[in-house]
Amino acid sequence: MSSDLILYSYWRSSAAFRVRIALNLKGLRYETRAVHLVRDGGEQHALPYAALNPQELVPTLLDGERVITQSMAMLEYLDETRPQPPLLPADAAGRARVRALSQAVACDIHPIGNLRVLQRLGAQFDADDEQKALWMRHWVASGFHALETMLAGSAQTGRYCHGDVPGMADACLVPQVYNARRWNVPLEDYPTLLRIDAACAELDAFREALPERQPDAPSNR
Amino acid sequence: MSSDLILYSYWRSSAAFRVRIALNLKGLRYETRAVHLVRDGGEQHALPYAALNPQELVPTLLDGERVITQSMAMLEYLDETRPQPPLLPADAAGRARVRALSQAVACDIHPIGNLRVLQRLGAQFDADDEQKALWMRHWVASGFHALETMLAGSAQTGRYCHGDVPGMADACLVPQVYNARRWNVPLEDYPTLLRIDAACAELDAFREALPERQPDAPSNR
């Protein structure tokens, strides 16, 4: 079954990075199909990809005939169809905690600093690179401050975001920390986030999902 | 059990509106505690609320001793702890479709037009009300265009977003349509969204969740 998994991905997309981590954590083999978000005005806006994903965003996951959009829906889908090892804990309260940590990134940090939002800041407000970086740093700092409080203040935080097993929240956090470094966001105020990020960096599932390891990364082409 | 549910809410918050719909669809009684997002610089930024929700966002759900943040985590939690009637279909592919439709709103429309983002556009780019409205209309139009394609093009769309039973995707769509009307977004290009919104408007669960029906709405105070 897993040999039919195809991920439409862009090496530097945080959302695709999340799904790569989840696929790797579950030991699933998949084929990467690159969608270049910048070249030629963005391949995500052109057919045939735009027919698969009407939002014209990456990633898109194919499981045989099934077409799945939205990275967080993919993580839930993979956990339902390939339950071992799980991305979510077994208890409802723990699942709610992990989903809330995940969504603090996936709803409240990442979409506001997405490529298309930065492009829109340029088009509507004539924002230059420095102003875009200021925007990014504001939202990452605000989100990371909250996440640090949520993680440092909870006995349920372990080596990873929830206990000592990596899962959904880690798959969301690590790409956002990677992205923050790219934008030179100061990170010294978030020791728990950095500790968890470092623990994840020791795992092959996270290392092999890194942007620079992807077949469409500039260094690999 | 359900008598212990407390929702920290703001009448006009789309995310709180979603959770009110879900609670109503399940027939759960809950206590509303109002958090005023604007008065005194925003009660969400002050104690005691900010200790419950380190992101300083509404809503927050209390289930007895359990504190749950993030509206989409609340919907999943309610569906796991009070399964009937379900907010998600039973099959993994259907669940992925409903989650993707939901997240197309909850990740890719709503957070980009949130109050705090509009405030930031004012602070960083000196955006006035007209520019904020233009920003809102851009993101709602882009998201609704994709949702219209996803819904109109699928045989799984029924009276509601997924078949003939209202659920999670409807609980996300209806507050976003309400919000679009508030910002005077032209909606004539989205006939399927409008049809589903009208079908939902016939249901008490949606009507009773409307912002103007909430105890903290200005007309009720």
Q: Report the portion of residues of chain A in β strands.
A: 5-15%
According to CATH, the fold-level topology of the largest domain in chain A is Glutathione S-transferase Yfyf (Class Pi), Chain A, domain 2
- State Rg of chain A: 17 Å
Distinct helical segment count of chain A: 9
End-to-end C-alpha gap of chain A: 29 Å
Greatest contact between two chains? A-B, 47 and 46 residues
Structural class of chain A: alpha+beta
Low-confidence stretches of chain A at least 5 residues in length (pLDDT < 50)?
none
Number of domains of chain A: 2
Describe the structure.
With 221 residues, the first copy, chain A, is of the alpha+beta class. Chain A has helices at 14-25, 49-52, 71-81, 92-106, 115-125, 129-152, 168-182, 191-201, 204-207, and strands at residues 5-9, 31-34, 60-63, 66-69. The first copy, chain A, has 2 domains: 2-85, 3-Layer(aba) Sandwich (Glutaredoxin); 92-206, Glutathione S-transferase Yfyf (Class Pi), Chain A, domain 2. In chain A, strands 2-1-3-4 form a 4-stranded mixed beta sheet, covered by helices on one side. Chains A and B meet through β4, α3, α4, α5 and α6 of A and β4, α3, α4, α5 and α6 of B.
